[in-house]
Amino acid sequence: MLAGSRWKYPKAKGFALENPISDVYRQMQSMPLLKASFNPMSVILQANSHQSELLNSFCIGHPILVGPGTSLSCSDGTGNCCQEKEYEDEEMVLYELMFEEAFFLSHEVKCLKVFSKMQQDEILLNDESLWQLMNLHKQGFSYYYMAYSHLRKKNWIVRSGLQYGVHYIAYRHHPSHVHADYSVLVVPDWERQIQLDSWSHMQGIIRLCGNVAKTLLLLHVARGDVNEQHPRCLNSHTIKEMETFIRRGV
């Protein structure tokens, strides 16, 4: 990967190195479990001030509502409300998470419980059920998650790349300190030839990456023999990285 980072201000490097993403990862693993509600397009998570600080440091989700009356309706499976009484008067924040972000917190970091509303009941989703729902509502989810977790496990910050015409944007450190290094395009094995043969599509992405001084990173994801409808497939996939270096103004 790239040798250097493009810092946003003179002391940014010092701040970033003093607060590595790996430290935030460990803090999130040890904090009380977060609660979230599944929706067909995203996952809505409720956080108190401390949890919100960690989510922002880890760059997970986008805050959509803030206030002392903010509440996420879910139960713990026994009919009890998820929200702790000690936080009733505390300012709460609702976050909207991409499916990839939510599954990473649930499956890898193990700090999130996701509930789904079934008629009048709130059902706690295990990893298998959550994975199947996300595959149902997002085509190719298994491939995108494999790519997302591949970068996250390297302690990179991964954000949506929709505004740049790619799947993700990857940062070496927190976006408040550094500019993004990569525009990331996920290429599933079943779509590889289609995407790479579409020269007009690739040319547009390459031009846009050049204009914003980013390197295009292609992640070719090939699944193994395990059915992609089960999270066990995560243990059988392979990912190949290919960097496309672009000069500004191309």
UniProtKB/TrEMBL annotation:
<dbReference type="InterPro" id="IPR036167">
    <property type="entry name" value="tRNA_intron_Endo_cat-like_sf"/>
</dbReference>
<dbReference type="GO" id="GO:0003676">
    <property type="term" value="F:nucleic acid binding"/>
</dbReference>
<feature type="domain" description="tRNA intron endonuclease catalytic">
    <location>
        <begin position="144"/>
        <end position="226"/>
    </location>
</feature>
<dbReference type="GO" id="GO:0005737">
    <property type="term" value="C:cytoplasm"/>
</dbReference>
<dbReference type="InterPro" id="IPR011856">
    <property type="entry name" value="tRNA_endonuc-like_dom_sf"/>
</dbReference>
<dbReference type="Pfam" id="PF01974">
    <property type="entry name" value="tRNA_int_endo"/>
</dbReference>
<dbReference type="GO" id="GO:0000214">
    <property type="term" value="C:tRNA-intron endonuclease complex"/>
</dbReference>
<dbReference type="GO" id="GO:0000213">
    <property type="term" value="F:tRNA-intron lyase activity"/>
</dbReference>
<dbReference type="InterPro" id="IPR006676">
    <property type="entry name" value="tRNA_splic"/>
</dbReference>
<comment type="similarity">
    <text>Belongs to the tRNA-intron endonuclease family.</text>
</comment>
<dbReference type="GO" id="GO:0000379">
    <property type="term" value="P:tRNA-type intron splice site recognition and cleavage"/>
</dbReference>
<dbReference type="InterPro" id="IPR006677">
    <property type="entry name" value="tRNA_intron_Endonuc_cat-like"/>
</dbReference>
<protein>
    <recommendedName>
        <fullName>tRNA-intron lyase</fullName>
        <ecNumber>4.6.1.16</ecNumber>
    </recommendedName>
</protein>
